[in-house]
User: Fold this.
Amino acid sequence: MTEEKMRFEAEVSRLLDIVVHSLYSNKDIFLRELISNASDACDKLRYEAIAKPDLLAGDADFKVRLLTDDVRNVLTIADNGIGMNKEDLVDNLGTIANSGTAKFLDAVSKSDNAKDVDLIGQFGVGFYSAFMVANKVEVVSRKAGEDQAWKWSSDGKGEYTISEAEMEGRGTQITLHLTDDNKEFTDEHRLRHIVKTYSDHIGIPVVLMKGDGDETLNEASALWTRPKSEITDEQYKEFYKHTSHAFDDPWKTIHYQAEGAIEYTGLLYLPTMRPFDLYDPQRKGHLKLYVRKVFITEGADELLPPWLRFVSGVVDSQDLPLNVSREMLQDHPLLTKIKNGLTKKVLSELETAAKKDAEGYETFWENFGSVVKEGLYEDQTNRDRILKLARFRSTHGDGWTTLADYVERMKDGQKAIYYISGEDIDALKRSPQLEGFAAKGIEVLLLTDPVDEFWMPSVGQFEEKDFKSVTRGGADLNDIKSDDKEADKDDKKDDAASDASALIAAIKLALGNGVKDVRESDRLTSSACCLIADEMGMDLRMERLMKQHNRVDEISPRILEINPKHSLIKKLSDIATKDAKAPILNDAALLLLDQARILEGEALPDPVSFARRLDLVMEKGLGA
Assistant:
């Protein structure tokens, strides 16, 4: 029998190293993961057998079997599910397909908290938890419909072997050679307790094979079919971990029966923790579709919109045909109705939580708000409900605010909901574009999620109030009354007294096509200048994002606004009024533009020239 030796993929080796050398808070999880995988294998075969009944080959009673040998210190977990061939063994046990795992491994490697390693299950790689308790793992598997069985073996130290094997019937047998300090996992009482605690919800029997008669250790009925009154919180939690491959506890559990024109049962979970691959385009959801308790598919996009992709659980339909295919799912009218019903149910749960558990809801929003906001431009049907659920940071304190609360705080004469967007909230708070708004006590939303740039133009307004970026022209601050009436009077006096027309003309001449326009600002109070986009132009951050993704070739010229009340601008205005061609004005204009670019976080087109001009201005200022 030829034995082929292979090396683990690099990420698997890193993962195994963490598993073997980390301290786990609970080693019992390895058995939960292996039983869960065995259950999934049986579900997959049950579905395949709908179209190919001969795959069952007279063995239609699915079960997971546990066999112990306390003399050899061995534990075996066997199932009669779909099984694996050689290619499946390499793909499933030698590599990690989930692209988010690398990011997860980087995070765990830098963490001092061993419990973080428990997140391993989020990536569907729970099989490797076997190496927590075993120094050698052997997998013998035979795929349903095939005659050849294969054996996979490894000590978890970087390599594994694959060879042909003999096996009667289909399925998979995983044999763990336990380490001396893990002999407890051959004890019947220990196994009985673990299965009852973590795998009671599994819909197929988990059977302990004993000399005096086999013993079924779990309830062996689909959890979602039981009355809610008969299900404990712990059972709900363990089923969540089974369906979502997660180790956190669910934040919300939604279990309900839809009746009427269509009938289905939904058991949905809203997570507490954000998965590492939440923004991965290849991420598959963990919502499973069943038809009359027969597993059909997992991660069905037809069951929930992409902006709810963090929801996990099961949906069991009474009306869909058992032989429904993936292609049929895409256009099946019943699926559309179920999807609408599930979406409304999740939204109702979030609305209730937002009212009754504000703190918990804000934590949820911190983790998943940026995903939910995708629905603002993807889902017009539910847009208004999502807008009311949305939470925002703003210049009104450090907490979260709703749009409704923002509107209540709007000033007399204020017609728009103002916002500013960028990568960092602290940098946004320091932005010169906010100065005039702060002086008048006008609240501004602080947006840091890239998705905000896409839904804002799509939505346009809330309660007939337009959304308006403070980095665009047309702020109309003079029409808005502040709380300080004396300050408003002073502003009018300053406006009447200021005249920067000569300086503006000189700056326009110096900058030429480098700017779209130069004008006085009513938004600046302490800064000398800033850049803004034209009122009808693209928002500053949006244009930067488009440039980063090669959607535009060049950043378009901006409007340079100057503060006529600033001491520097006043001094330059005096110079320009006396001599519009004074040499200092050319360098000053270019420095002001570069300064405004720096404040926007943009790279300077010519840093060398900027440094030279700065040196010259400093020399003159020092009288050198």
